Amino acid sequence: MLRSQIRTPALLVDMDVMERNLSAMAAFFAEGSARLRPHYKNHKCVALARRQLAAGAIGITCATLGEAEALASSGIQGILLANEIADPVQIERFVALARLTDIMVGVDNEAAVAALSAASARAHVQLSVVVDVDTGMGRCGIGPGQPALALAQLAVARGLRLRGLIGYEGHCVRLPPGPGKVQAAQTAMEKLVSSANLLRSHGLPVEIVSAGGTGTYSISGRVPGVTEIQGGSYLLMDTDYQTVCTDFGLALSVLGTVISRTGNERLILNIGLKEISGERGLPSLKNTPGARLRKLNAEHAVVDILDPNLSLQVGDAVELWAHYSDATVNLHRQMFGMRGECVEETFFLES
Amino acid sequence: MLRSQIRTPALLVDMDVMERNLSAMAAFFAEGSARLRPHYKNHKCVALARRQLAAGAIGITCATLGEAEALASSGIQGILLANEIADPVQIERFVALARLTDIMVGVDNEAAVAALSAASARAHVQLSVVVDVDTGMGRCGIGPGQPALALAQLAVARGLRLRGLIGYEGHCVRLPPGPGKVQAAQTAMEKLVSSANLLRSHGLPVEIVSAGGTGTYSISGRVPGVTEIQGGSYLLMDTDYQTVCTDFGLALSVLGTVISRTGNERLILNIGLKEISGERGLPSLKNTPGARLRKLNAEHAVVDILDPNLSLQVGDAVELWAHYSDATVNLHRQMFGMRGECVEETFFLES
Questions:
Q1: Does B140 touch chain A if contact means CB atoms closer than 8 Å?
Q2: Cα Rg for chain B, rounded, in angstroms?
Q3: Looking at this predicted complex, what is its ipTM?
């Protein structure tokens, strides 16, 4: 199948670039003591998760129960659900997962520990948890140090299996590179690692100290005491992340068609915010000098023609680079793996 | 099934409110000469389209070939694809649709007319078109008057069946109510209706003069010469549209769970921008005084606690009103129809 035969709009991944990104990240984690448990939330594709495991990843991180279910039902082990769960339906789904696979979930409050503990006793299944520590992001997570220790002790006392700590430094990942970013990420990791040491000093098992994203992997992944990194966006990348991380190439785009041209003023593409995310800013045109994306409507992209000699006409193909890969992949159910002009593989996006 | 048994996050529709919206719009179009061909793009649900038809709609408008395919394969007739198509794959999909159902598509350029004409001759299927007129929005559409006439004449000369004109006044629908909005919409409709009259004066058949959205239906739907309106958002509504149109109630929300609470500072919900759109602004909490949504991350909503007596705790259910219904529905594959606390029906979102 050729690019020209694809129904537009369609999500594309450049296989060459994706494979280079995979190798570059694997090479980083082949050295040092930290390992990679890449985040599934970004690509939501079991076939890509398998490639990450084949390249050395020690398991897969995810953000939702639905993602964990997709991974577990594909036989994937070593799942870190790096998020909180709370209500009875969520707890029961997690119990079902724990019967299927090796999975752990974050906890940051006593109510969740109590609910997981009660469910574990009812179901006769030991449940694994990691204490989620707020390292400065101010979202989920319990305070580092004594509060984290107290919650870890409660979890163990209630019969849960404590695996360690997680602490996503989300306030650092999109800082521009430089000493300020290094300092911010190291400060966050200090809170996490010192909490881990405090737990250990109280006799608690801390196998896992997990943090990091694509924007901080090279800093947090070299902090002594951090055992693993959760980065996910590195594989497909996007133009937003590339402003702060140039280690990886852009692999993700949306293919569309010019459906209208008004003189030398504007083009309209059949790609809208239902196919490519504008949640953090506008995407940009791939390999199309002389034109610039002005705005995204629900089903249309409005492109200003800057160069009157622009050759694009109605019916021609155009690609937009994803600006926010997470939210763009989330809009699609399949992704075409392109080797040049050919579709080499169709990736199903499972959750 | 009860609300408390639903897996969160989940898309909900309040059946009572939705039915009131359906009736209110039907009552408007029971008078006057214009009819309603509601837009499927908003809810993407064939079961809801059937209710709109049962309430008097004369057919269904849609924005993409995928939507048209979902409608046609469900046996729905009278489909207006109010958009342009251009490349060979799109043209072939449209030919296949024309074999299945009564469908027409917008054209705004000679290349598309030529491509449709050639495909029609090859396939021995007559294809129906409407000329898309730019009534001032500046997106798709050919200029009103002489350019629209010339394109219509070309379509007929090339063997296409001309059904009429479409002209979405998208630059008016979100203006605040008042004389300025009335003037703007009427000015746009004047361009469309005068174009229709010009075509008729040249002997061309103009059965359909279609325009309008939820934000302008009551203005454009009473302009003499406008035969039908395309509004779609009226059925489910959202907090953005409600700032300019108070004729309909909010029916669409996303149900989530409080997964973390940090003292009297903040709550975290398991609803992110992957489940509710923030593309045009932030959603808001339903029936939750004392708290305010501060931001949406990919999988989390961060809620500021304004009232220290707020009773919401980890594990409790919370709903967010959709701020942008089109883009929110697009994130889901099913929607729970709620009658009070009970799930009365599960709606599948088919495209």
A1: yes
A2: 22
A3: 0.96
* Helix H or strand E segment including B292: strand B291-296
Q: Is the CB of B274 less than 8 angstroms away from the CB of A326?
A: yes
> Across-strand partners of A61?
A39, A80
Please report the pLDDT score of residue B351 as a whole number: 72
Q: Which neighbouring-strand residues pair with A131?
A: A107, A165
Q: Residue length, chain B?
A: 351
C-beta atoms of B278 and A274 within 8 A? no
Please, which pLDDT band fits residue A66 given cuts at 50, 70 and 90?
A: very high
User: Of chain B residues 280-309, which have a CB less than 8 A from chain A?
Assistant: 296-300, 302
Facing residues of A320 across strands?
Answer: A254, A285
Mark which residues 165-224 of B lie under 8 Å from A by CB: 170
AA letter at B45: C
Report the b/e string of B12-28 with b at 16+ CB within 10 A: bbbbebbeebbeebeeb
Using alpha carbons, list the distances in angstroms from residue B213 to A235, B170, B330.
41, 8, 18
All structural domains of chain A: 3-10+250-348 (2.40.37.20), 32-232 (3.20.20.10)
Query: Which pTM value belongs to this model?
Result: 0.97
Give dist(CA B118, CA B91) in Å, integer: 10
User: Least CB-CB distance to B261: which of A85, A89, A109?
Assistant: A109
Percentage with pLDDT > 70 across chain A? 100
Sign of the alpha-carbon dihedral angle for A41, A42, A47, A50: negative
Residue among A64, A273, A302 whose CB faces B299 most closely: A64
- Measured CA to CA, the distance from residue B98 to residue B197 in angstroms comes to 27
Quick one: average pLDDT of A275-280? 98
CA distance B151 to B146: 9
pLDDT of residue A350: 84
pLDDT block averages, 10 residues each, chain B of length 351: 97 98 98 98 98 98 98 97 98 98 98 98 97 97 98 98 98 96 98 98 98 97 98 98 96 98 97 98 97 98 97 97 98 98 96 72
Which residues make beta-bridge pairs with B183?
none
